[in-house]
Amino acid sequence: MRANIVRHESMMVNYAVVNGWTVVEIDGDVDAHTAPMVREGVIKLLGQGHRHFVLDFGFVTFMDSMGLGVVVAITKRLRENHGSLRIASVSGRIRRIFELSGMGDSFEFYRSAEEATRTAPPVGALAHWPHPAH
């Protein structure tokens, strides 16, 4: 069951819990105006005990550097709380923002939320963030 955590004229954010993951589905633009709402929604869920997140960008039509900044801020907060993060359904245009910023290798990307939630959350997944453990 999906629940709404942000409703705004240019975006909506819903979440559902799947296999231990809180899948946050973002629908709309993630920019200077809306990115703080995404951050606050995730922080609210974190306060409710959610620790392992999948950010589903499948319905994101536009993201700017503020959107990337929010993903970084969320990741830092999750790391502090021993959580984990996966990013799903990223278009080529949005993936390019991660690549151009030098953050392309710092996150786990999945083709879909279904793929991202197939395995249960790992312990200590963000311990080495922003450098992946290889």
Q: Provide the CATH top-level class.
A: Alpha Beta
Q: Would you tell me which CATH topology applies?
A: Transcription Regulator spoIIAA
> With helices defined by DSSP (H or I, 4 residues minimum), what is the helix count?
4
Q: State the order of secondary-structure elements, H for helix, E for strand.
A: EEEHEHEHEH
Question: How many distinct domains?
Answer: 1
Low-confidence blocks of residues: none
Helix content: 25-40%
Cross-sheet strand order for the largest sheet: 1-2-3-4-5-6
Radius of gyration computed on alpha carbons: 13 Å
Strand-pairing-aware structural class:
alpha/beta
The span between the termini is: 36 Å
Largest sheet, strands/sense/barrel: 6 strands, mixed
Mean pLDDT: 90
Percentage of residues in strands: 25-35%
Any idea what the CATH architecture is? Answer: 2-Layer Sandwich
CATH superfamily: STAS domain
User: How many beta-strand elements?
Assistant: 6
Shape: globular
Transmembrane segments: 53-74
Keywords: Membrane, Transmembrane, Transmembrane helix
Protein name: Anti-sigma factor antagonist
Pfam families: STAS (PF01740)
